[in-house]
Amino acid sequence: MDDTENGAGKPRGPKPKIATMEELSSAIGVSRPTLSRYFQDPSSVRSSTVARIREGLDRVEYVPNFFATRMNRKSTGMIGVIIPYLNDLFFTRLLESIEIAAMEAGFTVITQCSHSDPAIEARAAETFMSMSVDGALVAPLGNQSDFEIHERLNARLPFVLFDSRPSTMPGVDFVGTDHTQSTGNIVEYLCRVGDPPVFLAMPRVNFNAVEREVAYVAKMEELGHDPLIVGTEAVRPDWHFEPHGFAILDHFFSRGQFADRSILCVNDRVAIGALQAAATHGLDPGRARRGGLRIAGHDDYPLCPHTIPALTTVAQDVEAIGRAAVARLVKKIRAENKPDDQLVTLFDGVLKVRESA
Amino acid sequence: MDDTENGAGKPRGPKPKIATMEELSSAIGVSRPTLSRYFQDPSSVRSSTVARIREGLDRVEYVPNFFATRMNRKSTGMIGVIIPYLNDLFFTRLLESIEIAAMEAGFTVITQCSHSDPAIEARAAETFMSMSVDGALVAPLGNQSDFEIHERLNARLPFVLFDSRPSTMPGVDFVGTDHTQSTGNIVEYLCRVGDPPVFLAMPRVNFNAVEREVAYVAKMEELGHDPLIVGTEAVRPDWHFEPHGFAILDHFFSRGQFADRSILCVNDRVAIGALQAAATHGLDPGRARRGGLRIAGHDDYPLCPHTIPALTTVAQDVEAIGRAAVARLVKKIRAENKPDDQLVTLFDGVLKVRESA
DNA sequence: AGGTGCGATTTACGCACGTAAAAGTAATGC
DNA sequence: GCATTACTTTTACGTGCGTAAATCGCACCT
After folding, report:
1. pLDDT attached to residue A281
2. Could you tell me if A59 lies within 8 Å of chain B, comparing CB atoms?
3. Does strand D come within 7 Å of the CB of B50?
4. Every domain of chain A and the residues it spans
């Protein structure tokens, strides 16, 4: 009562902190159940009461307890996202589009990163189950993932895989790129504009890597060319793609090989290493379209327009994948026990012709 | 009782799902409080009972309800992390080191990304408060952040800023790079090995950008050179750094300027754009150390070793920053109401001399 | 004035678990 | 064989809020 500042003016100091709805109710003279209803749907409360509540909330610092609110609701309003690796702009873009789509759908996303470790991936899945997220979006690690964990998630809650699809989990919703189309697309382009490409692969840490290899071979044979794949046997099967691309091509260039070939890299990060190897050997990929060295990638990594020379590649439609994955998951969340029509959504890759090929 | 498979063998099908500890207790014949104690500290339960519980848990599918457990504990075991932007490998590396350090300290981290939007940043802070995380680690957006939200967080729970420090929040713990040292370091190097550098800046979206500008000017004057800053007036103050670097230098190169200068870019992504501009104009940065074009950056972006030419830069000690930020936060969490000795922890940048300068 | 109907309040219970106190049981020592 | 000790179980209450049912207050209408 001795606070002389509590007129109509804005309160100066920190507002009084209120911990529970109970206190809030006695602080602004509205019953607790009414407050509860107000927070869930202000329109279910008489407008004069809404005004009183708003005014009261303005005078104090109160944040509802998330745990307590969600424990009694059927839905937590959260979706869990697992990605395998953070230090890759491809995944960050994917994650960004997922977060935005989820936000628009009214969900809070909890992201966990596997950091290339199946144990961490498993822990993340447990966290999601124990927090009873409404659904989970998972980009698996690769063939080292612990699929039992994915199965448990899938059995327990709405579940959609994205980006990379394990052959060991049929019958699960998936959203990703049609690598047969995308890789076929750029192989066809390379063949049309110049010589048939060599495929610079990577260690098969990833199902997509294999899918692209297979797609490359198929398209080459369809066009009547002999496929040639290099780079599958690397020193270490990790995520250091650029050094891998560099090492493989440096090896060949040093022996005078491949200096006038077309080279299709399994992804853009490998291609960046490839460009570096070319520069090291004084080569200028893309200068002579036909008959000269050309280098192309896959994914449309954000840096592609700024490499030297700018990298020709196929873009994955990251935004569409993110949006579709969220849309599918939200649909499953709302449907609950509908007949399980599995849905595989694949997006086409679109060609980005730049300077390098 | 008609399940013929329940011998000693591994159960084949999906295990029976158990939702609550109550059911669990009656399923394996151990009282619920005992189970509760088991989950918190198995050593507080007799070993023969532990064995019975373990055996029982092996036969069913049970995950404790996170909300219910945390609601009654003083601590949630979670720390909230806010980063301003995802599509930047600098932040992903920082985040990675934070996640690992937090994991080692026994905390679960909840990451929220501001996506360059102060409103989203504010929402993330609210989420943290409502989930009563044990502490928050925040890398602010820049001068467009809503600092009132940060103040509220800081007043409510253990709070540490990292990476970027608003001048408007004195008295708050901070962990980051000593930009005076790091920028001074590379300015000194550039001057020693060649001509004094021009500073290619960026729109001041970020406090670090300003700090580096100031540090550049100071070091130049200390060495008796005239500072020259370009690029502060950009088309749009967003996170498209590479195009910015390209545009500014393309502008100058087109008029025959700067082609034989040393150019220090405010960060590596701007430098990547700068390298591209150089290549476009047939320039080869770093070839002639003294008297020729040189380009250097700041941060040691993961791609620096793979640019053409490889980029000379100063590395921020991302791992140390992440670890220190977590360590400081954990200390504040454990200390609670200790005397508030503010702590500003700054790490030195270390020179990475490569080819471009 | 009395009846009607809507919104608000009161009351009471539930969620899944933590936790403290009291009472029970088993293992150990002499 | 009995007391001591250690662990368990039982019982009961608390956490902050959702939610349903019953009660209450108020403006409106005839």
Report:
1. 96
2. no
3. yes
4. 1-73, 78-177+319-348, 179-315
Between CA B162 and CA B316 the distance in angstroms is 13
Cα separation, A160 vs A171, in Å, equals: 11
Q: pTM higher than 0.70, yes or no?
A: yes
Class of domain A78-177+319-348: alpha beta
Spatial neighbors of B7 by CB under 8 A, at least 6 apart, are none
Which residues 239-258 of B are in CB contact (within 8 Å) with A?
242-243, 246
Q: Using a CB-CB distance cutoff of 8 angstroms, which residues of chain B are in contact with residue A309?
A: 279
CATH T-level topology, domain A179-315: Rossmann fold (3.40.50)
Q: Which fold has domain A1-73?
A: 434 Repressor (Amino-terminal Domain) (1.10.260)
Q: Does A181 touch chain B (CB under 8 A)?
A: no
Q: Do A130 and B308 touch (CB under 8 A)?
A: no
Residue B110, amino acid: I
Name the token pair of A193.
Answer: 């504009």
User: What confidence category does residue B335 fall into, taking pLDDT thresholds of 50, 70 and 90?
Assistant: confident
A34 CB neighbours strand D below 7 A: no
Give the pLDDT of residue B7: 37
Note whether A279 and A230 are within 8 A (CB): no
| CA atoms of B113 and A16, how far apart (whole Å) | 29
Do the domains B179-315 and B78-177+319-348 match in fold?
Answer: yes
Distance of alpha carbon B272 from alpha carbon B356, whole angstroms: 11
